[in-house]
Amino acid sequence: KHHVCEQCNKKFTSEKYLSMHMSLHRASTIPSFQNPPDGLWQCKLCDKLFAQNSNYKNHMRTHSNERPYVCSTCSIGFKERYHLKKHILFKHTDEAKEECRVCGKRFKDSTAVRAHERTHSTERPYSCMRCSKSFKTSESTTATAATIDRPFRCDTCRVSFKLKVHLKKHCLYRHSTDYPCECTFCGKKFKDSSAVKLHERIHSDERPFVCACGKGF
Length: 217
What we know:
Blueprint: E1 3-4, E2 11-12, H1 15-26, E3 41-42, E4 49-50, H2 53-60, E5 69-70, E6 77-78, H3 81-91, E7 98-99, E8 106-107, H4 110-117, E9 126-127, E10 134-135, H5 139-143, E11 152-153, E12 160-161, H6 164-174, E13 181-182, E14 189-190, H7 193-200
Antiparallel strand pairs: 1-2, 3-4, 5-6, 7-8, 9-10, 11-12, 13-14
Protein name: C2H2-type domain-containing protein
Main location: nucleus
Pfam family, one: zf-C2H2
């Protein structure tokens, strides 16, 4: 089932992606800022102060629907460049540049590497607020209270999930270097079937996303 943008007729595979795209049409202008004493920028909506103009502007987007950083592959917009880079890394590339210094296992980002490297040590820097038990990852501190509502638990980092499919996605992207899905045309490998489907369109004449001008992409 396709979810279609009512304003430009572009099609998306999920309601979530459609919502993220629609925010581009609803983007509101960031309020003009005042420069208070001592060279600080202050948010007019929540009074938070910032030392740099760029940080102020990034913060103001949290109060608006503006998503100026758009993925060139799937047209989804993001409020910060960092989130766009993460999206491209995990959804549209097969790169795993970060390497464990102990066993050489490779991961998508440094956060995953650091969490993995603790499995090689006795370090447990995160404590549960309820029982004071210590854990190797911050996610595990919340897992102790979620075993009933979230019965599917990751064997590697002990994070729990409500649905088995979410656990499988977590393990695939956070703890695995496997790329089980393969393009039927060129053999390039991807993490999941949705990424393969997007990629395979470059081998065909299919143009499922239609612009208001009538041109397909």
